[in-house]
Amino acid sequence: MFNYRKREDDAGFNYIVDEVVAFAAAQKEGREIENRTERMKNVCEAVVKCSLTGTRFEALYEKEGAAAFKNPYVMKNSDVQENFNAIIAEIINPVLPMVSCEDFIRFFAEVHQVGWGDTARFIVHSNELFMVNEIAEGVTRGTMQVIHNDEVTVNTKNIEIVTETDWYQIAALEYDFGDFALRAARSFENYIFLGVIKALTAATGVAGAAYTAAGFTKQNWATIAQKTSAANGGSAVWAIGTLAALNNIVPPEAGLQYGLGQKIADQGYLDRFFGTRLVCLDPAFEMPYGVNVNGDLAFSDNEIYFIGMNAYKPIHIVYEGNTVVVERDATHTPDKTYRIKIGMRMGISAVLGSKFGCLTLGA
Predict the structure, then answer these.
(1) In what order do the strands lie in the sheet with 272-273?
(2) In a 3-state reduction of DSSP, which class is residue 327?
(3) What is the largest CA-CA distance in the chain?
(4) Relative to the CA of 289, which of 83, 122, 133, 318 has its CA 20 to 30 Å away?
(5) How far is CA 336 from the centre of its chain?
C-alpha cells in the first residue's frame, strides 16, 4: 500500500531511498551488505545535501559539507526541516511492505486503500441459501424469500510515532537510516498486527458458539473443521496457530503416532491432521512490554483458528492515503536532537462475511 515513486529530476533523493531500502532489507534478512560503513556515510552526506537544497544554506553545504548540520541556525530553519521530513517519509514508505506479516494478510486480513478523507464501505453478502418449497397441486407459488446483504463501514484514525533523530550523528556521518526506517516500519506493523489479533479475538464470539470448542479431542477438531468447511461451501480448511499450539496436535493413539516422531522433532508440528492443513504463524511480541518486560507473545498459544480457503477474510485493514506523514514536534526541538512525529491514518475492523472456527486447547 505504501510505495515510493522515483523522482525523475532528483537523482540524489532516489539514491537515498534506494540505499536505505537496501540497508533495511539486509538487516531484516540478516545479510551483510558490502561496504556498509562507507555507504552509510554517503547516505548521511546525501541527506544533508538534499535537506539544504533550495534553502538559503545551500551554499553553506558546498563549503562545509555534512558539518553544516552542526550549525543551530541550519537545524532550526523551517525549510531545512521540511526537506528533512520529506526524506524521512519517503524512506519509511517502501520499507513498510517489507515487514508486513504475510501469514496474517494471507489468512486473516484483507488490505484496502482509500483516498484522503474517504470512508471504506464493504458489502457483506449473506451466507444463507434459498428455501426450496414443495408445491401442492393448484398452488401458484411457494413462500416468497428475500435474502439481505449487510453493509459495514470502516473509518480510519490517526496513529503516530514520536521520536528523535540526532543532528550531530548525521553531521558526523554516523547515523544509520536503514535501522531507523526498519524500526519505524516494524513499529507500525506490530501495532497493526496486534490490532488484527484484537479484532479477531473479539469476532470469535460473534461467529457463534457452534463454531467454537474447548479442549483438544479428535471429536472437537473434526466438528469445528467440518462446520467451517460446510459454512463456506465445502471449502478446504486451514488450521492456523503458533508453533506451541500446533505442537499439541498429534494423534492420541500410540499406534497412529508411529513414524511421526521425526516430523515433530524437525518441524515442530504435522502438515495435516484429519484432512486439515496446519499453518504455523510467525511469532511476534506483544507491545510495548513484550520484548524487555514480560516476554509475552501477541498470539495465544492456547488457540487454533479454522479458516476456509475460499472464505472472506474476517479482518479488514484500511489505509487512508498512500504515504506516511512526517512533521516536526513544535514543542520539543533542542539543538542536538530533532523530534518528529511519523503518522498515518488507518483502521481495523472485523467484517464477518464468512464463518470461521476457533479451538481452545485448554478446557
Answers:
(1) 212-214, 357-360, 303-308, 237-241, 276-280, 272-273
(2) strand
(3) 99
(4) 318
(5) 33
